[in-house]
Specification:
Elements lengths: L41 H6 L6 E11 L2 E9 L6 E13 L2 E11 L6 E10 L2 E9 L6 E10 L3 E8 L6 E10 L4 E13 L2 E13 L3 E8 L2 E11 L2 E10 L4 E11 L3 E8 L3 E9 L5 E10 L4 E10 L9
Main location: mitochondrion
Subcellular location: Mitochondrion outer membrane
Pfam family, one: Porin_3
């Protein structure tokens, strides 16, 4: 069968024939979604220790399945010290499912420094997120807006950072699964410091992954980042990271590990700058308390930082209960 505008579908005496008309058929992808370019190295970064500084006390309490209140007291040399309180609220709850929008935030009552995060899924494949941060009462608001469209085999993301007429920065990225193990992507950076001056930059990304190991790399004119993650045992993960910056001509290589137990975890790292770090976290068995401490030390300079963190969680959310 042919359409009215096509020649007949049959072989002529000269051996020439015309095929059927093209038809648009819905495609099918048997590959998994690769995520976005920003989270390309997330498996290796999860193994890295998250160092504490000073003393931090956190409190998390559940009022309802969609309502939480939080409080924190921090004594630190790096972070803003003092007391903060906030919460999390999800607008809709149906049966056992919570539906966005979700609002998370906290505020420092003395300096009025505040953080606000709004997450909204208009439909399942579209994510819209806004992150606002104000350092103090007279400081401008730092903003980050994200629009992400997720399909079965690819993810398209747009991020906007402090976008204003006089300055700003935005990234446009795409990540796609080429095979069951290979994923390729690209990210375009647009940055301007003057209304008439726009500086573009392009980065390429690739990842090769299996269920127990993953190799990822990103390259641009500014530098190169490579990460390798592997689960060498059901309880042990190892990761290697390499970062090279073109402007500073500096390369840093890091080796880190994570050893998980049923109620605790140990993270450690060592890098090419001769810095050694260690972090330990544990959930107490008879109390709704998570405690942890960390220490990081630079061997050539003999400088170190030590920190402790306590998380009081009567709801059991930190333990997945």
């Amino acid at each position: 069968m042919t359409c009215k505008n096509c020649p007949p579908y049959k072989a002529s005496e000269f051996g020439v024939f015309f095929p059927d008309c093209f038809e648009r058929v819905g495609g099918h992808c048997n590959k998994k979604n690769p995520g976005n370019v920003q989270n390309l190295h997330i498996l290796a970064h999860r193994v890295m220790p998250k160092f504490f500084d000073g003393v931090e006390l956190d409190y998390l309490h559940r009022l309802a399945p969609n309502k939480y209140i939080t409080a924190a007291w921090v004594l630190s040399h790096i972070r803003a010290s003092g007391f903060r309180f906030g919460g999390l609220y999800t607008f809709r709850v149906q049966d056992d499912t919570m539906y966005t929008p979700t609002i998370m935030g906290d505020i420092h009552p003395t300096s009025l420094a505040a953080n606000l995060n709004i997450l909204y899924y208009p439909f399942q494949s579209l994510r819209m997120e806004a992150v606002l941060q104000k350092a103090r009462e007279a400081a401008p608001v730092d903003s980050q807006y994200t629009i992400e469209w997720t399909r079965q085999c690819d993810t398209w993301t747009a991020n906007f950072y402090n976008v204003r007429n006089e300055n700003g920065r935005c990234t446009l990225s795409v990540m796609r699964s080429v095979t069951a193990h290979w994923a390729l992507g690209a990210e375009l950076l647009l940055e301007w410091n003057e209304p008439q001056k726009l500086t573009p930059d392009l980065a390429l990304a690739a990842r090769y992954s299996h269920y127990n190991y993953s190799l990822a790399a990103t390259a641009s004119r500014q530098g190169l980042d490579v990460s390798y993650w592997q689960r060498i045992h059901p309880q042990i993960q190892m990761a290697n990271l390499l970062a090279w910056n073109r402007n500073t001509r500096k390369t840093i290589a890091t080796i880190c590990y994570q050893w998980s137990f049923w109620n605790s975890a140990v993270h450690g790292m060592f890098d090419s700058d001769a810095s050694v770090g260690f972090m330990w976290t544990k959930y107490l068995r008879n109390l709704p308390l998570q405690l942890g401490f960390s220490v990081v030390m630079n061997l050539p300079t003999d400088r170190f930082a030590f920190g402790m963190r306590f998380v009081l969680d009567p709801s059991g959310l930190r333990r997945g209960e």
